[in-house]
């Protein structure tokens, strides 16, 4: 075992060539480029020398949204037409190399935003948060206006969803240099290809929806004859036309806006004052009284999307699955997103596959690899997979490992993995610093049990394909990546994210020259995978879970005890449930410590592993958030609460505190009860089995 | 093993004394009599010589409904007062012995029917079905009327729920001699104490609700601080006052009714023509223009109800549970319902407990015994238990065995158990006829696989405590009882059901003199339990499941293919799913046959057993019937369909066919898709594991 892990540390050398191969052409979901990557994955996983035991494709008919290549979306100002915006509104990003010239580069667009031709005076709505529109609405009539917003602070679709109730008829969204280029105005000398910064014409594409999975088939795998809701019933997408634009175009619009100056925290990096809009432009602007018109031709299409699946059969417990996945589809060339992760996955499978084919190794448990399709449109491939195989995966999955963007930049490590692995893996560019040392230096927290340790975030969102595994199936999940030092840059994310500049050239020059960080992630993820697949006892610590629950509880007690008491709701059951959980976890830990597991009966060890494996499952409650597709985990579900605590209670409490309505306080009470019951129920699974 | 089973066959001799003890006083849920049975169960299960490893009580605060002992419910006619009905409306059943004299005999009432004092002209509404009110409404204005209905044909609560939309303001319900006493007029010479027939003053009590579990805490175990919905939000209970009465009182009312004669199939066993009511009485009746008044004083109370739990710890797989349960609460003395079952459970635990205490036997798997509280009010104790321990029970339960009323009468056997056991158990009163032979003689079916075999019904309803186990948790369940020959009597159920005559005297004279049938059930249930707890391989046959699915499919194809096709819904995915299931089941069976399990690794056997144990779990879908509490099993859920087929599809199809609405056809399509997906998902759990 240890020697095999030693092997893993040395052999990841194919990462650059994987990346070159994966990023040759744009491979947006269901395009010819996507099919090319399907074939490539299959070839690799079916390789007789380095492939897996078995690999195949699985297809789903899913609802996607595309611009019309023959009639591109347009943004125009008044009668000036496309030339209205400084230098002309760009339908495509500026070409700096052959990659941007590829005819298959998709025009920047807001997937799932409706087609339409709204025309109205422009206002600047900051990040498109509810509070932003509320502020605008105090002095402006937003009816019939177009809102320009910057990325960040609010979900993509939400910027339009928040706008529509005020009568806003169209939304523009751009990335302010403040948020991506460390505040520089970022002219072409300072940005890619001269640095990692976003060029002025760069546009972040994206899926504008708030639910994940195929939007027409919630809870059902999208097959030929599957029931589909009508498109009119889709919720969580922009109700009004929306278009993302580059910041050079945004600059030309925002700096001409009239009206009062926006609040200071709304100001971005442009060398002008961001005004709210009159609505519309300054009287002194060349745009004068012009209105802004969006011509959006997006259309929905049901398309065939593939997952590529591969397995290594376990030798001792083939019916226990460790799942490792990443998506395959990109918006354009996707060198970082997702190919940095796919390269890592291919290296992990190559190295493990060779050991299997040579008869040198076979894991105790089975390993399933998933190369998901159509993630960019809303985690669709992974969500459909979990719907189709719900029972089997629920019953047997030990953990899900997600490595999407494996390297965001040139510095430290984050994720959700056992500390033991990290001590063995060296940090890139240093033979002496382990990932553990580097991690604890850059991102740590103080644990009541362990003192200062590497910090691990919680997977509370739906940012990548782990969502269906943790939130819908309740499978213990982790998301691993190597990221940059946030004290050195304030970039929201690597600046080429979802643009036509996320290419091999960009990645190999500015994200990870020499692919050493890729290698570190491959070593880390490979080690985590092997440990999960091979350990006699699953490497999960239920007392750490208790620590997280106690941290959530402390916050909940601080924030809610008094307010709940006013409405005769006692928070005691929650306190008591967490206490019971802690005590059950401690007993199980003690029992494990007291056991000589290597000499125990196989069924005794299996029993303990089942307790550990199924712990996250015990937090699922399908009645908790019936309106939120795929969110059933009462501890890690998404929440609007600003502070980390139990999501359902937090959201219900805040809603009730705001509305004061009896029915909202009742919902807060219901959330408290179901949460306490889930925690107690989970505790019961850790207690002595009979 | 076999010798231990031999022991089981001979030793059940304490059945009469158990029954005497359990039926000494009325033990309605949460009364002093109930507490007495709690103490008795605890004493028995904690007995040092014949008890279990451990026994304890678990309490829930549940919403019950009682009449007011100080102000009994009344039914009066016009100004004539209580004397209005022949001989006076009886507040209590006639006393034939000391049992009926017990002051703790609860007045007959309709639990959960609201208090109120409606007064109106009487109509006869047959069984209170929707079609019955529809028929009445064609010639009568039902506004402001009181409807008298007979038991049968429709759920208790539903008779009032169906009535209210027509303006009916109160409902009476009685048991017609046609339905319980084989059509005899049943005067006092012919009925109990002279026979098993219901005396003229006998009244069937009951819970008048359509959902099971505590009505104030759906999906939440009813603890001290648990969130409770407001009483106004309870659904599925009578919206109008309702009262059950004896057939002597019903006779006095119905035979005086005016108006047109009721249809022939509405006519009961009274020696008069059943008229519909004018509304009201015949002009020639002494009642004349009188109205009928109900004075109902029922009130809801939150009461502390106990389950008594006991366990025998498994030796090899303590984390696998075989659960055996019955309720403990009765309406009055409950000799048959539930004490015939509780007597059997106590004998099973005494015999197994002694073997455990003497060190002669310990099961491979753990056995959990549950003596449920408040079943009569809606399966409350068992439902709360499954809510509280949802995760633990879902993960580990092999099967649930329910023995409620163990003996309904003097003839054959029905249930849901392995054929192998039955060959060993002799039928009562015969040393040569096995239960198997007797069963196949009286209740058989032709299986495509096996030819003529004993028939086993499906647990599609919520008639006893198996409901939460099969419908909510998806645990394979069985309900065992010995019942009478339905060719010899047309009684809906044994005639003392839920009356003050369901006493030891009745049971030992008319249901099972000598308790030989009780013994047969104890032997059968004990054998089933031991086989489930001890077999290396779980005694489940997944190909038999395929046979049931194929029978349902054949019916669905016959009834729905054409109608669905008209609405462009293909039934092919369902056909294909059942086919895949059959093939996966056949492969697993073959694999089992090809294995020498006794010499296989323990983990291999555990893996197969997990596949078998979790098969029913794969049919759960919490999105299938979101409005029906606790029904998540897409194969065995209740259905209004007249023919046995997939419940969700059947109900949705019938609704759509009736309404013709697009949204109803969409729901039919959704049901078809989720059903197909569940069957396919279940098939995937039977396939080779990787």
UniProtKB/TrEMBL annotation, chains A, B:
It is found in: Apical cell membrane. Residues 89-103 have a biased composition (Basic and acidic residues). GO terms for molecular function: aminopeptidase activity; carboxypeptidase activity; metal ion binding; metallopeptidase activity. Keywords: Aminopeptidase, Calcium, Cell membrane, Disulfide bond, Glycoprotein, Hydrolase, Membrane, Metal-binding, Metalloprotease, Protease, Signal-anchor, Transmembrane, Transmembrane helix, Zinc. Residues 569-687 form the Transferrin receptor-like dimerisation domain. Residues 74-103 are annotated as: Disordered. InterPro entries: PA_dom_sf, PA_domain, Peptidase_M28, Peptidase_M28B, TFR-like_dimer_dom, TFR-like_dimer_dom_sf. Homodimer. It comes from Esox lucius (Northern pike). This is Aminopeptidase NAALADL1. GO terms for biological process: proteolysis. Residues 119-207 form the PA domain. Aminopeptidase with broad substrate specificity. Has lower activity with substrates that have Asp or Glu in the P2' position, or Pro in the P3' position. Lacks activity with substrates that have both Pro in the P3' position and Asp or Glu in the P2' position. Lacks carboxypeptidase activity. Lacks dipeptidyl-peptidase IV type activity. One of its GO terms (cellular component) is apical plasma membrane.
